[in-house]
Amino acid sequence: MKVLIVDDEKHVREAIRYFVPWEKHQIAGIYEATNGQEAITIMQEHQPEIVFTDMRMPLMDGAELLEWLHTHYPNTKTIVISGYQDFNYVKPAIVYGGTDYLLKPLNSKQLIAAAEHAFQLWQEEEAERQQTLRQSMQLNVLRPLYWDKMLSDLVAGQVSFQELKHSLSEELGMPLFAAECRIAVLSLQGADCRLLQRFHGDVGLTSFVLVNVCNEVLASKQSGIAFRSWQVGAEIVVLLWSAVSEAEELMRGINGSIKQTYGVLMDIGLSYACEFPEGIQTAFHQARQGLNERNLLQREGRIHLYRETLSESGSVEDYAFETQLEKLKIAVLSGELDKMERVVEEWSVQLAGLPVLTESRLLRLQKEIAEALQRWRPEAEIHFELCYDHEGLFSARLWRDGMKALLQRLSQGSPQPPDSRLVQEIREYLDQNYAKDMTLQHIAQRFFISRENVSRKFKQISGENLSDYLTGLRIDKAKTLLQNTNLRLSQISELVGYEDEKYFSRVFKKATGQTPREYRKQ
């Protein structure tokens, strides 16, 4: 286990070093940084498991560092050490999963207790992760699957090259001192699913034969290795560590072999040349983005290079997508098939007129549609038919026909009345957004019905007024915060959706018979 101490005050860093019994917990390394930027560099190089951080620092403060750690190293345990009790400093520690918040000047007993708490949490979670990994490995002890997992973790940044380099060199022939690398990815879930169809939808078998074809081509130059990825959206990954300048030619060779053997061509995303091994994760990200951002409405070759200046397809189209999705959700809540089909018809015309439709956007769209339909028929299997022509390009006509067929299948017997589904949607929306300023008019606009209908249907189905339900939800959340935190009442009031602390106190007392302070004291 390794530790990183981030504080711009040297005496604070020295105090932490002095008080915590590192040897007792077998700490292998202790690193120091004076600001968030230095901390990021150290994290990327050494991956410490425990981080002590100050909140106010130059260049990058503690709040920004906590957010970065939460995104890039979510398993890391963080202990915040600050000279301020201000809510703006406490909030990031809560939001981004800090294990403790200590105030300066440091109390040695509190510091040791916080450190040992973090060590214990990490060890327990690591034991669970290792147990999960061992159980997974026991299910299938074949060596290729083991390396699929290790290489997948390597390109995704979940394991370092230093940990695997000797095994990679001995078993896979990967050079220890290559200068550059490039990565290519192939996905079976996108436009070119015809090969998957040929193997009756068996992703494992399809991936197996593709990996074999790729490795036969790569073996001639000992230029890299192909493996089945455990990462979503990239079933096959090709890691090149030599012949990097010939990567496009190699990918065309792979596609030629697939065409010759199985009669289809694959779309392949390809990264730039990146430093090895530092750039492996960057190359993987670039290759996936190159594939996911290809235009499904135009054929520009099968090798899709990453483009640095990729732009979003346009806020106008995004807004139109959101509008159509909301229309479909409301049509689904109505339970009327003809309304749903009219939305789909209108949507297909819109899709056909787009200049650009990327695979990432199409997959995101299908996921959101599936979530809306799953709420309607939770017991049903939501499956989208292929909507690509013989060239692997998107067909709005096939998409429309597939959607209509899906809606017709789902509409054959709905287990829940439309009004019940509507009230369920409203309750779930309130459960997720209770902290926001919420009015009856806002909810009515959100669900495209009148204010009167919102109140009447909610009361009719749930047996209580909508405003009472929202108040009860907020009071329950406030009780939890009063019991389990030391936050001030003004902070709790803000977190549960009340801007005015006095109004919050009145509502709380009316609901519970006690003021918030009396409740906390009790």
From TrEMBL:
The species this protein was found in: Paenibacillus tianjinensis
Domain Response regulatory positions: 2-119
Protein name, entry field: Response regulator
InterPro entries according to UniProt: CheY-like_superfamily (IPR011006), Homeodomain-like_sf (IPR009057), HTH_AraC (IPR018060), HTH_AraC-typ_CS (IPR018062), Sig_transdc_resp-reg_receiver (IPR001789), Tscrpt_reg_AraC-type_HTH (IPR020449)
Keywords: DNA-binding, Phosphoprotein, Transcription, Transcription regulation
Record lineage: Bacteria, Bacillati, Bacillota, Bacilli, Bacillales
Classification via CDD domains: REC_YesN-like
Modified residues (4-aspartylphosphate): 54
Matching Pfam families: HTH_18 (PF12833), Response_reg (PF00072)
Domain HTH araC/xylS-type: 424-522
PROSITE patterns to which the protein is assigned, alphabetical: HTH_ARAC_FAMILY_1, HTH_ARAC_FAMILY_2, RESPONSE_REGULATORY
